[in-house]
# Entry
Amino acid sequence: MISGLLNQLDSNIGILIVGHGSRNIHASKEFAELVGEIKFLFPSNHVEFGYLEFSRPVITEALDILRKKSVKKVIAIPAMLFAAGHAKNDIPSVLNAYSAKTGLEIIYGRELGIDNLMICAAGERIKEALINKKNVALNKTLLVVVGRGSSDPDANSNVSKITRILVESIGFAWGETVFSGVTFPLVEPGLRHSVRLGFSRIVVFPYFLFSGVLVSRIKKYVNVVSKAYPEIEFINAGYLGNHQKVRETFFERIYEALEGKNAMNCSLCKYRSSLLGFENEVGLPQTSHHDHFEGIDQACSLCEQECTGECEEIKNSFHQHEGNEHTHDHVHYPHADHPFGPVTLQSSKES
# Structure
């Protein structure tokens, strides 16, 4: 596949890998290293990366670099595990605006998604965590997969599917899915529920691409629950990171875009289908709430802190930035007050 991809690329085509960005220096370094290994295989060297927020270069700066290299067409791949708000709204909004302003042709690829390569990478990370651990049968071990969490139920359901495939592929006794923010169940209440299933060992696997604030806090909550239940062995598996099969998935997405096979799955998209419980979001305009938080010193306080789902509840509010007003329009997430969701963080802060 890689050789076929290289044969189709010419000096007029550039590749942009789009990351979310993080104020965590380790996360930014890991992302840059992954893109560097992808870039190494492309002789034209027309491969750049840009961030949605928190880090530089931002998306528009990376596109400027490609244009200076006389690139006429750009394939932009979102470094996102699933298609939720960032992949569906924020990134394409920035790309569309740039294309309209400069005339640069931009082909938008799809997210990494549910892919056998990604599942294999996840399985290897989990198996690595079990090396040199005491001999407890897998069919007596509980797997807990932690997803990022989104207000998009289709994206959240994909994490549950990953959990099920890993449970059956590796042979765990049981599997549970929890989330780091926005939706439910969150990590701590989810783990406290999971211990009631009676397993003596629980493997916690963060289905994240890179390190960062949220991965660190997942470990924090695992530590909190493990201290409350010392009779249970908790094992923290590593996140996906710069795994070879993750890089291969990026090559797949680039190849799909070149071949015109980069269509996203819209059958359960809350913006396109009348999804149960989210009917009022069909046809909402494609806008971004990150345009005024680009760069290192312009970080959105609602995105990198402990995720309470607060930004999902903001509707028609305004933020001041450099003297200008910007809309931060979001539809209220219908389950923001779920007893196992973001409300648990608010109550813990009060206590």
Remarks:
- The CA atoms of residues 2 and 251 lie 7 Å apart.
- The chain has two domains: 2-113+243-259, 116-236.
- Residues 116-236 form a domain with the Rossmann fold fold (CATH 3.40.50.1400).
- The chain has eleven helices and ten strands.
